[in-house]
Design brief:
381 residues; mainly alpha; 3-stranded antiparallel beta sheet; single chain; disordered C terminus
Length: 381
């Protein structure tokens, strides 16, 4: 058994063409182009959703600039280097979650942030969306695949620790995203179908246990509101009713930029964060939403190509997990805003306002670029 990290998947995967300038500086041109489009759209919509608040716009643009810098730096790191440090990064992430649990900054009824006055305020749970799948990919790549029961059990422990700490904040939405990103690594590692069916069968009693002993009252109310939002139209059902009203009033072509009524008249809460796609739908209509989803689709397609072309097990597992988790981001937010899923507080990638989330997403795409551009190149004669 070859336990080396550089275990090649196939000798035929080595590309025989010259590296372009962007590849030499470890940047994927297509990913960068699509990310810049999303950034421009995000700032454009945020200006309207935020009530033309230039301060909000400057903060988001600054966060995107920092995120791009982090992405470029991460892209310079060889996947071998990331793998060797993944366990340490996992431990640091867990330690930060413990700090949040003990002495974290409380805002809006949740303790999710570490606040250093005058310096920075960040959410360690966001980092675990990268650290957890990276650590699992490193661990599983060191052993024969598909993983044995022993390795599955150890992986579940590695997943459970951050999941519990994040759920305690409480932040069930982020906890579930961390869980999903890790489960994707296990799935891509070749998890046997009997384990998958067993997990699905165990989901019902686990969900019942979480409903009774883990979920807070407001989280239970979100699920009940999802089933029947009209049961409390002026309370817990207000957000989703106003969101669907905003999307529906936009029609096919929308009311035009800065001419939305639901957000500008404060009918739509959190219009610049979780429900920002409702603002897009109201002002740019069905056409605007479809164009945005097309950009997301192209971004996911490019990421899948990078996953397929990865030359190591670690690279394939990590790239696949990042790609599928990004898809879940988009799917959950759109489903949540349109009333197809319960409200769980998942932002729309690169469009919703939020600094830590933006930097984490861009660091994930930096990892994809590193996996893609650090392949072995054989120059053509």
């Amino acid at each position: 058994m070859n336990r080396g990290f550089d275990r090649a998947l196939s000798d035929g995967d080595v590309l025989r063409r010259r590296a372009s300038f962007l590849q030499r500086i470890h940047i994927d041109g297509w990913l960068l182009f699509l990310l810049l489009i999303l950034a421009a759209v995000g700032l454009f919509v945020l200006y309207s959703a935020g009530g033309r608040d230039q301060g909000l716009l400057i903060k988001q643009a600054s966060s995107f600039g920092v995120g791009l810098l982090v992405m470029v730096v991460v892209a310079q790191l060889e996947p071998r280097f990331m793998a060797s440090w993944s366990a340490l990064m996992y431990l640091i992430g867990v330690a930060l979650l413990v700090v949040v649990d003990v002495m974290g900054h409380n805002a809006m009824g949740a303790t999710r942030w570490i606040n250093i006055p005058g310096v920075i305020r960040f959410q360690p749970a966001e980092l675990m969306k990268v650290f957890v799948p990276m650590t699992l990919a490193w661990y599983l790549a060191r052993h024969n695949l598909p993983p044995s029961f022993k390795h599955i059990l150890i992986s579940c422990v590695l997943i459970a620790v951050p999941f519990v700490l994040i759920a305690r904040q409480p932040d069930l939405g982020t906890a579930l995203l961390v869980l999903v990103s890790a489960v994707f690594v296990l799935f891509l590692a070749g998890l046997r179908w009997r384990w998958i069916f067993s997990a699905v069968a165990a989901a019902v009693p686990i969900a019942a246990w979480m409903w009774m002993f883990v979920m807070h009252q407001y989280q239970k109310q979100r699920v009940l509101t999802f089933l029947n939002p009209e049961s409390d139209p002026l309370g817990s059902g207000w957000n989703i009713i106003q969101s669907k009203a905003a999307i529906g009033s936009g029609g096919v072509y929308g009311k035009g930029w800065l001419h939305g009524t639901q957000s500008h008249l404060d009918f739509l809460p959190e219009s610049h964060t979780d429900f920002i796609i409702a603002v897009l739908g109201e002002e740019f209509g069905l056409v605007g939403i479809c164009l945005l989803l097309l950009v997301y689709l192209l971004l996911i397609a490019r990421a899948l190509v990078i996953t397929l072309q990865a030359q190591t097990v670690f690279g394939k597992l990590l790239a696949g997990s990042i790609t599928l988790t990004f898809f879940i981001y988009v799917f959950v937010n759109v489903g949540m805003v349109s009333g197809l899923l319960p409200v769980v507080g998942v932002p729309l990638p690169f469009i919703s306002y939020g600094g830590t989330s933006l930097v984490t997403l861009l660091s994930g795409f930096g990892i994809l670029m590193a996996i893609h551009t650090h392949r072995k190149w054989i120059a053509q004669s």
